[in-house]
Amino acid sequence: MENIDATVITTSLPAMARDLHQDPISLKMALTAYVVGLGIFIPICGWVSDRFGARNVFRTAIGIFMAGSLLCAVSFSLPTFVFARFLQGVGGAMMVPVGRLVIFRAVPKHDLVKAIGYLTMPALLGPVIGPPLGGAITAYLHWRWIFFINIPVSLLGIYLAGKYIDNERGGDAGRLDTLGFVLSALGSGLLMLGLAMIGEHQVSDTVVIGMCAVGALFVYAYWRHANRVEAPLLDFRLMRIPTFHASVVGGSLFRIGLGAVPFLLPLALQEGLHMDPFESGMITCASAFGAIFMKAIAQRVLARFGFRQVLIVNAGLAGLALASYGLFTHDTPVIVMLAVVAFGGFFPSLQFTCLNSIVYADIASEDASRATSLASVVQQLSLGLGVTISGMVLQASSRLAGHDQLEAGDFLPAFLVIGLFSLLSIPVTRRLPADAGTELARKH
After folding, report:
1. In principle, which of 31, 113, 130, 248 could form an S-S bond with 7, CB 3.0–4.6 Å?
2. Using CA atoms in the order 198, 199, 202, 206, what is the torsion angle rounded to 10 degrees?
3. Using one digit for the tens of pLDDT, what is the confidence trace for 190-215?
4. Tens digits of per-residue pLDDT, 262-294?
5. What are phi and psi of 352, to 5 degrees?
């Protein structure tokens, strides 16, 4: 549901922008607001799950996501739509990390890669179904109907979670780091929203700079706070573990690049190449087929080459695939676009399987909640930062070219930048020992 929602929205952004009387690039605010909701509430998902139980938290999260979806459907202004997306982010903040915790606590480490694959496969249906579905609804009905898709799925999810998920708690939840929560929430929220507003005309430049500066100060204050207290909300001491450090830091750089694609590619196809939403959606969903195929062979690839070698080589291939999107023109055959986009899903899929598995390679069971919170918040903020950076580069490229409206050539610099971020993850993963994650990659 969460992946369908994200891909449906990105396919429909140009139509939404017209109805809300906004520039298409301005809709990056809605995508960023969702990530801000994730960034604020993911840090407490582990504590909340330990305190109230996985089933209760998971079902409540689905309900909040459903309420945000309804509000999106009836929004008639950008501020209302942005708030509705933020509310969806609050629900999404609890769904994926809590689901991952349930898997981690139930599955032996040598089966974790396979289990993560099972967890991911249904989610991969989102990028397959979402783009053509969102494109068809936008082209032939109205974009508001796309948010009603979440209602029956949410109700079914609430029922199934109640039937099949135990209300497991992770032992003594302890006291919530309230000061840490306030500092991290204000820091990540103000900084991400401030960055997303750069180049926009919603508020003055002075306010935008002030938001970024104050947000950065709160982030620094949290870092100082986390190093002083015994049980911080986001425990940066876990970064001393090599496999965890490589997954979080290297993964964040990789995700900055990949996070821009759902925003940038539909815009390039619709605004740059003048495709309709349905055509754009059919091409965009090719990446999901590449991702699904890679999931089927990921375990064998890791067993053959090991985590370190795969993370290094595959990051380079993924970066080249993503950057090549910027070469699409009106003369590029559709079959070539489909093949390139499929490769753009194939290589990142393997990278995510590695990163999402190796993050737990050396994490003790009692540290699982804290590790999940820290890894998840960095992952999501990185994805949001990708949207923000690509939007800024796209705006700058279009203005430097003197274009009143987006054209195909404006997208090349943005795709080159996101490809570069994937390559920047290589120096981080090169520091891993050659046998990193051996227990996870071993066949059983």
Report:
1. 130
2. 60
3. 888 888 787 666 677 788 889 889 99
4. 888 888 898 888 888 888 888 888 888 888 788
5. -65, -40
Domains recognised in the chain with CATH numbers? 1-167 (1.20.1250.20), 177-232 (no CATH), 234-443 (1.20.1250.20)
DSSP state of 272: I
Burial-class residue 402 by CB neighbours within 10 Å (0-12, 13-18, 19+).
exposed
Whether pLDDT at 400 is above 50: yes
Cα–Cα distance measured from residue 214 to residue 176, given in angstroms and rounded to the nearest whole number: 24
Chain centroid to Cα 297, Å, comes to: 23
The predicted structure's pLDDT at residue 443: 47
Cα distance between residue 35 and residue 86, in whole Å: 7
Q: Decide if pLDDT at 182 tops 70.
A: yes
Per-residue b or e along 336-373, where b marks 16 or more CB atoms closer than 10 Å to that residue's CB: ebbebbbbbbbbbbbbbbbbbbbbbbbbeeebbbbbbb
